[in-house]
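sorry for the late reply, my laptop died twice this morning and i had to redo everyting from scratch. anyway the thing you sent over, i finally got around to it. pasting the sequence first so we're on the same page, its 82 residues, then the predicted structure underneath. double check i copied it right bc i was rushing
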Amino acid sequence: MLTELVLADLRQQEGPLKKFEKLKAIHCEFEFDNLLQGFNVENNCLTPSFKLKRPILKKRYLDVLKQMYTDNGEAPHADEKW
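ok and here's the structure:
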C-alpha cells in the first residue's frame, strides 16, 4: 500500500532523532482537487487566504487519529480531551 511505502521512506530519513520524535504512523489523504491538493477552500479545510482551519481538520480526522494511536498500542482513554 502507498501509505506503508511513504512511511518506510520517511523512516529512512529519521537519522539521529530521539525516540519520541520518530514517526510511528501516518495518514495519506487521497481526495484531491484539480490542483492535486487535499486541503482546499472548497472542502472547507482552508480559509480563502490558505490558512488551515484547525478545528475543522481536527473534527475531520479525529477518528483517524484515534485509530492510529490504537493501532500503535496507545489507545486513548475515554476521559481524554482531544
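The helical segments are 2-12, 54-71.
thats about all i looked at so far, will dig more tmrw
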